[in-house]
Write a structure and sequence with these properties.
Protein name: Pyruvate, phosphate dikinase
Keywords: ATP-binding, Kinase, Magnesium, Metal-binding, Nucleotide-binding, Pyruvate, Transferase
CATH architecture of the largest domain: Alpha-Beta Barrel
CATH topology of the largest domain: TIM Barrel
CATH class of the largest domain: Alpha Beta
GO molecular function, one term: metal ion binding
Strand content: 15-25%
Number of strands: 31
Distance between the termini: 41 Å
Largest sheet: 8 strands, mixed
Oligomer: single chain
Helix content: 40-55%
Radius of gyration: 33 Å
Shape: elongated
Strand order of the largest sheet: 12-22-21-14-15-16-17-13
Cofactor: Mg(2+)
Family: Belongs to the PEP-utilizing enzyme family.
Length: 913
């Protein structure tokens, strides 16, 4: 921390708590306390970059305020001390009449939340100080424009006035003047607008716009604190999985002005293209404007490269600062700047949001430049980003009708019905419709619609507009600034070149990689990343996609780093071969019940309903060769790799006729006096076996114990298939998994029979068979008694789907549709426990069972085969608790591989392995 302390600044508040830090006191490592914006302003100040002086109110002050409803007692005095120091430094006082100091009050949480919280610029202007600003600047128009901006932002943000009222008044002023942009309004027009804005505030807020500059600042600080709990901020945090208890810092920064004429302006720059990752000059610049004009997308900007011809001195300085920041942060930096009459000022920097493709390209570029190593490169990408890259793209050979082109802001191929407001987007999406949200420009209030939509299309704005930044953060397809499209949100239509009108509900397609907009539905083709994983595109080849090359390198990094192996959930040879191409190191779950459906269902039905031992034996005799064939194909596809075969597990009712349907058939036959002895016998059996809660009934190991011969038939089929493959010079590595075990006695009983069958097959075929036998841990009791169960199990595979159901008492098929949405909206869940493992509950049982299992049997193999095995966050947890492998569906294997590598490179992990 800097030792450059100002004598005017208080050291701490009551009890030693320090709630305010000057920009000279902080650094980028204090994001928890100063928020991302404040920490980075301090860091740029430390680097000697041109940052306007200011200070930051900490997140701790915000949390105290939100918890108690009152600001910390010491806060006002600390703010006063820092404000006095700022005034001394600037040589002017806040809002003084002759030459006022003006400040901005801006939010700044630890994690970037673009546009989700509040900002107020030009604090300190009043009816008196606006005259002083006019005299001091020599620009009457600038002063009144700044004042109307303050009243507009303060009225909406602090006093809760409907922002549309200000916009309507502004539009009316432009209509009266017969101009289309704000900059064409003259000082007299803006002076009248200020009067109109003040009347709006008085009418809507029930009070006058405050003339006391300190009151303005204090109210703005509270408004920023309150915006942490605003609806859009909470929605964004839920979407991005940002904790709700962090609070926001508040940054008080002396104003610099980009709206002082043509030699002034404001812009946003990226050290690399956030959409593609390519190096170059990327960003937007707007002359004679303030920062909100750029990010709001209200006026169309010019490319940053044009700044060179507008103001070469500032351009060259900016390029040097961008290089300094990228080398310092060792990453893509997102920069906000203002030029005030030829003087460049840095207002913000942060590690920039980027598309999935850009993330992979930039990570490998930075490795090649020697700025980061492989381990750090893995932390710069995520499994969620890799999953995005595996989405399909538009077929370039398809016959299409292009109607427009904008800025490629966030890639992807999105098809949906055009909707023109967020409410409709959410409503239609909940009805199962795919929609594209079409707006002139988006604002933070559109967030729920942006989340619901497949993609976002705007006619205004650039790569740094609200729509672009938020879409990139969410991985949503986005095309911005399609100027040739005339969007009429009131009439719910869009007019395209040539006069064709797209009405709400019409299908459109947008390509976030090219910026192209099409009428109708454009067909899609597989992503080149999927083609790479499938082996149809080879990295390193002359025609290899640049993105594929980057993905290939990152995956190689991950595979070298990871200790978790990755297996597939696969039930047939086709899925097994696909999984192997995707990098699977075996099968962690083969669900044999899937082999019994279809043509074999009748055989299983006869087995379950058999009245005599002869009937049962006949059914088993017919099933045995079919099962053996299944396993021969599976072991061939996965030759040399482990294949975990789960014995029959599903609820009994899945193999029986529907009781209602069968009852109707019997009733109809009786009414028609038709023969129905078989149906009646079947109905009686179904009634006898009917269960109120089949998921907790006769299934898994219980089924094997109640129906003699069922599990032994399956074990025999596995053993004979393994023997056949081995005699054919193959290398089968079968593992037999007993499902739904709750007590070691169940496992011991089944294991004894299985060992006997394996020995019989080995003797009969003259083959040495080493088939390991283990169990699925999917019941709380199994997890709690794992130490005992390990005495009879050579491996555990955690069935986290069922374990989540039984720990929570949730029926997944019911609760997700009934009340999970409410739980997520209320913040009871940050994410569904079926999507990401519940570390505190289910995860605690997994960790305890793994520990107990290893204490009993140190060489026990531990894996997970629920869908959590492919969830990025869950993979990190499984690495931490020391499992040996995760298993997931074939298409999630690359994601699991990547996340296993990221987990290993970010921590030492467990030494249990």
């Amino acid at each position: 921390m800097s030792e450059n302390k100002d004598p005017h600044v208080a050291e701490s508040g009551v009890g030693g708590a320090k709630f305010v830090y000057d920009f000279t006191e902080g650094n980028r490592d204090l994001k928890d306390l100063l928020g991302g914006k404040g920490a980075n302003l301090a860091e740029m100040t430390n680097l000697g970059l041109p940052v306007p002086p200011g200070f930051t109110i900490t997140t701790e002050a915000c949390k105290t305020y939100l918890d108690s409803g009152e600001e910390p007692a010491a806060l006002r005095d600390e703010v006063s001390a820092h404000l006095e120091a700022l005034e001394a430094k600037m040589g002017k006082k806040l809002g003084q009449a002759d030459d006022p100091l003006l400040v901005s009050v801006r939010s700044g949480a630890k994690f970037s939340m673009p546009g989700m919280m509040d900002t107020v610029l030009n604090i300190g202007l009043s009816d008196k100080s606006v005259l002083g600003l006019s005299k001091q600047s020599g620009d009457d128009r600038f002063a009144w424009d700044s004042y109307r901006r303050l009243i507009q932002m303060f009225g909406k943000t602090v006093l809760g006035v409907d922002g549309e009222l200000f916009e309507e008044a502004l539009d009316a002023a432009k209509d009266l003047k017969k101009v289309t942009v704000d900059t064409d309004l003259e000082a007299a027009d803006l002076k009248k607008l200020v009067t109109k804005f003040k009347k709006i505030v008085k009418t809507e807020a029930g009070r006058d716009f405050p003339q006391d500059p300190r009151e303005q600042m204090d109210l703005a600080i509270k408004a920023v604190f309150d915006s942490w709990n605003g609806d859009r901020a909470k929605l964004y945090r839920r979407q991005e999985r940002i904790p709700h208890d962090l609070g926001t810092a508040v940054n008080i920064c002396s104003m610099v002005f980009g709206n002082l004429g043509p030699d002034s302006g404001t812009g946003v720059a990226f050290t690399r293209d956030p959409a593609s990752g390519h190096q170059g000059v990327y960003g937007d610049y707007l002359q004679n404007a303030q920062g909100e004009d750029v990010v709001a997308g209200i006026r169309n900007t010019v490319p940053l490269a044009e700044l060179e011809s507008i103001d070469k001195k500032s351009y060259d300085q900016l390029m040097g600062i961008m290089e300094t920041l990228e080398n310092h942060y060792k990453d893509l930096c997102d920069i906000e700047f203002t030029i005030e009459r030829g003087q460049l000022w840095m207002l913000q920097t942060r590690v920039g949001k980027r598309t999935a493709g850009a993330a992979f390209r930039i990570a490998t570029q930075l490795v090649d430049q020697g700025l980061i190593d492989e381990a750090e490169a893995l932390q710069r990408v995520t499994g969620a980003q890799l999953a995005q890259l595996m989405f399909p793209r538009f077929d370039e050979k398809a016959k299409v009708e292009q109607v427009g082109r904008g800025i490629a802001a966030s890639p992807g191929a999105a098809v949906g019905k055009a909707v023109f407001d967020s409410y409709t987007a959410v409503k239609w999406s909940r009805s199962g419709e795919k929609v594209i949200l079409v707006r002139r420009e988006t604002n933070p209030d559109d967030l729920d619609g942006m989340i619901a939509a497949e993609g976002i299309l705007t006619s205004r704005g650039g790569k740094t507009s609200h729509a672009a930044v938020v879409a990139r953060g969410m991985g949503k397809t986005c095309v911005c600034g399609a100027e040739e499209l005339e969007v009429d949100t009131k009439r719910r239509r869009m007019t395209v070149p040539g006069g064709h009108v797209v009405e709400e509900g019409d299908l459109i397609s947008i390509d976030g990689s090219s910026g192209k907009v099409y009428l109708g539905e454009v067909p899609v083709v597989p992503s080149p990343v999927v083609e790479y994983f499938e082996g149809r595109m080879h990295a390193g080849a002359d025609d290899a996609d640049e993105l594929v090359e980057a993905v290939h390198r990152i995956m190689a990094f991950a595979d070298r780093k990871r200790s978790l192996r990755v297996r597939a959930n696969a039930d047939n040879a086709e899925d097994a071969l696909r999984a192997r191409r995707f990098g699977a190191q075996g099968i962690g779950l083969c669900r044999t019940e899937h082999m019994f459906l279809g043509d074999r269902r009748e055989l299983v039905e006869r087995l379950i309903l058999a009245d005599t031992e002869e009937e049962r034996e006949e059914s088993l005799r017919q099933l045995l060769p079919l099962q053996k064939k299944d396993f021969v194909e599976l072991f061939s596809a996965m030759d040399g790799l482990p294949v975990t075969v789960r014995l029959l597990d599903p609820p009994l009712h899945e193999f029986l006729p529907d009781i209602t349907e069968l009852s109707v058939r019997v009733a109809l036959a009786e009414s028609r006096q038709e023969p129905h002895e078989n149906e009646l016998r079947l109905l009686q059996a179904v009634h006898r076996l009917h269960e109120q809660n089949p998921m907790l009934g006769l299934r898994g190991v219980r089924l094997g114990l109640v129906i003699p011969g069922l599990f032994t038939m399956q074990v025999r089929a596995i053993a004979e298939a393994a023997a056949e493959r081995k005699n054919a010079k193959g290398d089968p590595r079968a593992e037999i998994m007993i499902p739904l075990v709750g007590t070691v006695q169940e496992l011991e009983f089944v294991r004894e029979e299985a060992d006997q069958v394996i020995a019989e097959v080995a003797a009969a075929t003259g083959t040495e068979l080493k088939l390991s036998i283990g169990t699925m841990i999917e019941l709380p009791r199994a997890a709690v008694t794992a130490g005992q169960i390990a005495e009879a199990a050579e491996f555990f595979s955690f069935g986290t789907n069922d374990l989540t159901q039984t720990v929570w008492g949730f029926s997944r098929d019911d609760v997700e549709a009934s009340f999970f949405t409410a739980y997520l909206e209320k913040g009871i869940f940050g994410v569904s426990p079926f999507e990401t493992i519940d570390k505190d509950g289910v995860g605690a049982l997994v960790a305890a069972a793994a520990k107990a299992g290893r204490e009993t049997r140190p060489d026990i193999k531990l894996g997970v085969c629920g869908e959590h095995g492919g969830d990025p966050e869950s993979v990190h947890f499984f690495h931490e608790v020391g499992l040996d492998y995760v298993s997931c569906s074939p298409f999630r294997i690359p994601v699991a591989r990547l996340e296993a590598g990221r987990a290993a490179s970010s921590s030492k992990g467990s030494d249990h392995r």
